[in-house]
Amino acid sequence: MSGTSDLWEPPEIQVAVDIVILTMRASVFHVLLIERGEEPQAGTQALPGGFLNNKWEGIYDAALRELKEEADLDASGLHVEQLAAYGEPGRDPRGRVLSVAYMAIAPGLPEPSAGTDASDAAWVPVEDVLSGKVSLAFDHRQIVRDAVERARSKLERTSLALAFCGRTFTLTELQHVYEGVWGCSLDPRNFYRKVQNIPGFVEPAGSVRRMAAGRPARLFRAGGGTVLYPPMVRPVPTES
Amino acid sequence: MSGTSDLWEPPEIQVAVDIVILTMRASVFHVLLIERGEEPQAGTQALPGGFLNNKWEGIYDAALRELKEEADLDASGLHVEQLAAYGEPGRDPRGRVLSVAYMAIAPGLPEPSAGTDASDAAWVPVEDVLSGKVSLAFDHRQIVRDAVERARSKLERTSLALAFCGRTFTLTELQHVYEGVWGCSLDPRNFYRKVQNIPGFVEPAGSVRRMAAGRPARLFRAGGGTVLYPPMVRPVPTES
DNA sequence: TCAATAGTGTCTATGAGACAATATAAC
DNA sequence: GTTATATTGTCTCATAGACACTATTGA
């Protein structure tokens, strides 16, 4: 900081949060998008998010607030972690905005947010966003890409996949999480063996779940561990 | 954003960057720290960094500028990637400051920054920071922890380890990178085989490097690939 | 019965980890 | 020669991946 005057004051910048909410619906990997009601880019799809309410609101708190306001989701029971900051000048036409992106994982099937405050929210297949079939406002597509890559990576070494499931789940359900996020298909029988060989990952919950057809599936619950060893390895290297 | 007045303006916040510069010196994993010359916390060690110069400076650009100003390192040839944003209120006694942290990997042995602008910079063993033997200003210890965990993780599936090496390197040198970052020891003979079995990771550079004693080591260069498959797996699960 | 899904067992190729043995330098 | 480091080879065990087979439900 040499050469700066004693009177120099650091510049101040508007700070926002954006949230990538991921879930599994009918075995398909989805992200929650909002139709923007205001300019700029009114009418296009965007991630839920917004500016800090006031100068002293915590960024994590702001993320939880937006989660509630825009997606009608309660933070408890959701996995929420920070992704990165997106703050290059020019990313927002309104001016200099630095946005801190969060990734949230929602279990089960939170219905597409009924007639609530978040009625213009919709679950969109992640694939449609990555492929460009659905276009997003600002740099939100890149943010989704980063979130998906983060999720793909964490599925290997952490029990993050369980955040996509309810308190109890079947191994087939868990398999669909891995398949949906990784974008590949796995052998159910090998998956079975592999998952149960990782200490602390899942443990039997004692009961079963009846499906429309076929043998009922045993229910499992989280085994308490967060680090998977040995790790689950993706069969095909996914490009970053 | 319902219920907000049309006149409402988003709050503005001071934005800074902090850089975790990692390197390998004499087979020991080091981080670059600066002795703070100004209040608050003058005299304690801290990560190089500082506020944006002006409202329109890019955060990545600011990180590169601080890299040059405070550590006298040139960005070219350095691996620089963003880590995360640290912006909870209360983390900086000066007021509300949001800091975007970057991780930089430096190869070889950039001397501890001679009599330059960055004369109060010093390489400190990462272990001393993690263990608390050296205490850091603000939440910088947490930032270093996060950077180390990021590096440990990326060593598994990407060729990031090569960023710690020069243009050519021996496999023993590469092994020391893995050992230093992961904090474990590896069998040289198995490491040899494993590294060379990963397509696109390393390739022979044709020449050798003579050591003080023993058989000269073959030199290698980067193989061009960035994703490692099969991945290098850590022998012991390191807690986050 | 059949259709459908859950779960077990088995085989084989590959990689991990341990470690003996050899190669090539300085002295 | 000795010492030190690099590199190759070998052995054994565990895991991945392929896939036949059995189990348990609803219709």
From TrEMBL, chains A, B:
The lineage's top-level taxon is Bacteria
In this chain the Nudix hydrolase domain maps to 12-149
PROSITE patterns reported in the protein's UniProt record: NUDIX
Q: Which GO terms describe its molecular function?
A: hydrolase activity
Ordered alphabetically, the record's keywords are: Hydrolase
Q: Report what the protein is called.
A: NUDIX hydrolase
